[in-house]
Predict the 3D structure of the following.
Amino acid sequence: MLPNVLQPSATDHVPVLAEEVRACLAVEPGETVVDATFGAGGHGALLAADPTARTYFDRFEKHARVQARLLRGDFGVVLPQLAANGVRADAILLDLGLSSMQLDRPERGFSYATDAPLDMRMDPSQELTARDVVNEWEERDLVTIFRRYGEERYAKQIARAIVRRRREQPFERTGELVDTIKSAIPAPARFGDGHPAKRVFQALRIAVNDELRALESALPAALEMLRPGGRLAVISFHSLEDRIVKQFFREKERGCTCPPEFPICVCGNKPELRAVQRRPIRPGEDEVAANPRSASARLRAAVKAGVAE
Ligand SMILES: C[S@@+](CC[C@H](N)C(=O)[O-])C[C@H]1O[C@@H](n2cnc3c(N)ncnc32)[C@H](O)[C@@H]1O
């Protein structure tokens, strides 16, 4: 249980798989912990334009009775910088995706459920917005991101409808995009398998924030930062992220990169991580009932090889 002062209020982000994260990271007094996604604030907030993370962080620092520092920035940039500067940690958490405060703030434009400006930037000081992507990217690039990042079956039809509509009038709002998506897909596909705009919105969000690249550069940096015996936990919210984490853990567990037909290892690479469990940890029914946003969460954790000093 979180101490009372840190219990989320009705509008705050509810930490997902909290007990499981605590167990995997097993933090001991005196250890150094890096929370790479200090939520109840988030990336956007971390980047100055929005004071929420600072407010949450101040509250955290005051009540958690630990020495803490807030660093603003993209974890895909900040973790490699910390690693390169010799910062070492005993536990690192990456809780990917968006916080409830971001999802529930219509003006951030992340939600297909409320009409809002097409924005979707986690970092409000970044230039590229969803509006730019939707109005300016080539049709074939839209098809690619809808397929790759959204696993959208009707990527082609939707991209074509977007291009047709933007010739008449550029997109400004999420509602216009939702209507165009609905008009582009066959009627039966508008029902079932979640909201018809869910996959395209996910794809746009990943593209606008370059989310997979950030994860790909954060993972090796996190491994470098960990002390021997240090723990890394990653919560992902869709299969694209989970795949990156799974493959990274697998590669670092194997160590050796020699082709399987080699009779002996010549690369000399040793295993660097040991996954805590084979399958990702999923939230139980009770957690999903209490916090439906946790439904797609998958937690993977690993321990860095070597003996803790
Ligand atoms: C699911 S929330 C974290 C919630 C947090 N663990 C809590 O319990 O309050 C994820 C947060 O990470 C931030 N984030 C996502 N990608 C990021 C990145 N590349 N760099 C820094 N922060 C990022 C988001 O803005 C969001 O606030």
Observations:
- Residues 13, 15, 37, 39-40, 42-44, 74-76, 95, 97-99, 102, 122, 214 surround S-adenosylmethionine (CB under 6 Å).
- The chain has 13 helices and five strands.
